[in-house]
Design goal:
Layout: E1 5-10, E2 16-19, E3 26-28, H1 55-64, E4 68-71, E5 95-97, E6 102-104, H2 110-119, E7 123-128, H3 135-146, H4 152-159, E8 170-173, H5 188-205, E9 210-213, H6 226-235, E10 241-248, H7 255-259, H8 262-282, E11 290-298, H9 303-306, H10 325-340, E12 345-351, E13 360-362, E14 368-370, H11 374-383, E15 387-389, E16 392-394, E17 397-398, E18 406-407, E19 409-416, E20 421-428, E21 435-440, E22 447-455, E23 481-483, E24 486-491, E25 495-503
Parallel strand pairs: 1-21, 3-4, 3-12, 4-7, 7-8, 8-9, 9-10, 10-11, 11-12
Antiparallel strand pairs: 1-16, 2-15, 5-6, 13-14, 15-19, 17-18, 19-20, 20-25, 21-24, 22-25, 23-24
Length: 504
């Protein structure tokens, strides 16, 4: 054991970053692997409802608290004809799905997915195909989904049994169009032009919708920065958000470096904000473009397994990362990072929701369980509502392979004025020692402790399985106390902490 290590946090209710948009706790379901078939939809499952949706999965998604879900891709959307997934199931075509080299049966389409999102108290964030298609198909889809009646596409929806419009409010203009792997990959100029024209006609059909334009697939793309600037040059006045995607892994088995990767995410966000504001200044615009971080997670465990999957199979077990305890800690750090940028990050989607790099796993015909990453996300979505406060953190630091002066304590606080609650989220990155924190909140008024939740485990590689689903799970035996307007707490080594307080 090392010396007694301490950190100090100062909180003040006037140090507000911004209010949390609940959509920051969104997720993502793509026609990929077993996300849909075997994940949310399995008509032969003992727990399937009359529509074929798994009730055990519905329960876990509701518990997670996901307000918006991006659909139907992902890479999938760039080759997708949305019309394939509507009308009688027996008439729907089977297609070669080129993005993931599978066969798509189209047994689930837009109408069924809307139905399912309502069962889980969520909304759809719909993506349109700008890889192989363009403005025409996109405007038709908006008309099908959102126009009340009296036109070809709206009346077709009614004939399919959906009298009321779906009123989908957030739409993505394609997916990762900067990536050479993307079906219909485009240059920034090509994409900027088609995104602009598509955005215009979509908003002509329904002026109430919000649009997300594609930013870079990750910050290491050679076109990063220039891509955002060019695309926004074309689309700035017609869109509302620009997207960011990032995934992290621990291929080197270097936990100190791995847990520091949220600093890369932080820098990514700051960079994109700067580019948005540069174009705003250049155009002399009053409009602010916000960020949609609509793909983020840990993803690396499944790469080798995926190489063995036979092409052109139906719903194979693709990209099924089995998450361990250290992955949950990084997800916690990434959630804190998103909250620290609540002024500009208004939408975020944990990619994905079920089976495919997901917090929820299922067995075909069998059980469903929570992966390790489920818990930090569940805590953040439940208790991270309100105003984000900028904490002043004095923490020990460390250097690692890719980063310098990494704070051992990663922390943020959220004040829920409506519930008169304050929640401190904190990760202790220290691999050896408990860190004692003193949180000075004397300017916040009188508070009492509700609970101190801790997610910890002696084995950083520990996982949850169908046979041992509770191997990694939180407890509420944390050692926080309040004394003289100070919160004192011992944060165990390598732990995710949720300290919940209410007005005294």
């Amino acid at each position: 054991m090392g010396e007694n290590k301490k950190a100090r946090i100062i909180l003040d209710k006037d140090f507000k970053i911004g209010s949390v948009d609940k959509r920051i706790y969104g997720s993502f379901i793509e026609h990929l692997g077993r996300a849909i078939y075997g994940g949310i939809y399995e008509p032969d499952h003992p727990e399937a409802d009359e529509k074929g949706f798994r009730k055990d999965v519905i329960k876990l998604v509701k518990e997670l608290g996901v307000p918006i879900i991006r659909y139907p891709g992902g890479n999938f959307v760039s080759g997708y004809n949305w019309e394939d997934g509507i009308g009688p199931r027996e008439k729907r075509p089977r297609r070669l799905e080129l993005a993931w080299k599978t066969i798509e049966t189209n047994q689930i389409g837009v109408n069924e997915f809307v139905e399912w999102t309502r069962l889980v108290d969520s909304e759809v964030m719909m993506a349109v195909n700008l890889g192989t298609r363009g403005p025409d198909a996109a405007r038709n889809l908006v008309e099908y989904c959102n126009h009340p009646e009296g036109t070809y596409w709206s009346d077709l929806r009614k004939s399919h049994g959906y009298k009321e419009p779906h009123n989908i409010k957030v739409w993505c203009l394609g997916n990762e169009m900067d990536g050479p792997w993307q079906i219909g990959h485009k240059t920034a100029k090509e994409y900027g032009r088609i995104a602009c024209e598509t955005a215009k006609v979509m908003k002509w059909v329904d002026p109430s919708i919000e649009l997300v334009v594609c930013g870079s697939s990750n910050s290491s793309m050679s076109t990063f920065g220039e891509w955002e600037a060019t695309v926004l040059e074309h689309t700035y006045e017609h869109v509302d958000y620009i997207s960011l995607h990032t995934y992290y892994g621990n291929q080197e088995n270097d936990i100190k470096n791995f847990l520091a990767k949220s600093l890369d995410m932080d820098n990514f966000i700051k960079s994109v904000v700067s580019i948005c504001d540069y174009i705003k200044a250049k155009k002399r615009s009053k409009k602010v473009i916000n960020l949609s971080f609509d793909e983020w997670n840990v993803w690396y465990h499944s790469h080798e397994a995926d190489k063995k999957i036979q092409p052109w199979s139906i719903a194979p077990p693709q990209i099924e990362d089995i998450y361990n305890f250290e992955d949950a800690l990084l997800v916690g750090c990434m959630l804190i990072t998103l909250l620290k940028h609540a002024d500009r990050v208004k939408i975020a989607c944990l990619a994905q929701l079920v089976n495919v790099i997901a917090p929820i796993m299922t067995e075909n015909g069998g059980t469903a369980w929570r992966q390790t990453i489920y818990y930090p996300f569940m805590h953040a979505s439940a208790y991270g509502q309100g105003n984000v406060l900028q904490p002043v953190v004095y923490s020990p630091v460390y250097d690692c392979k890719d980063f310098e002066e990494v704070p051992v304590i990663e922390a943020v606080a959220v004040e829920n004025e409506e519930k008169e609650e304050l929640t401190i989220f904190a990760v202790n990155r220290d691999t050896d020692d408990t860190i004692t924190i003193e949180c000075d909140m004397r300017g916040m008024g009188e508070y009492r402790l509700i609970e101190h939740i801790v997610l910890e485990h002696e084995d950083i590689k520990a996982i949850n399985t169908k046979d041992n689903p509770d191997n990694v799970k939180p407890h509420n035996n944390g050692k926080a106390i309040i004394q003289d307007g100070m919160v004192m707490a011992a944060l165990p080594k390598l732990s995710w902490n949720v300290i919940r307080l209410s007005k005294a």
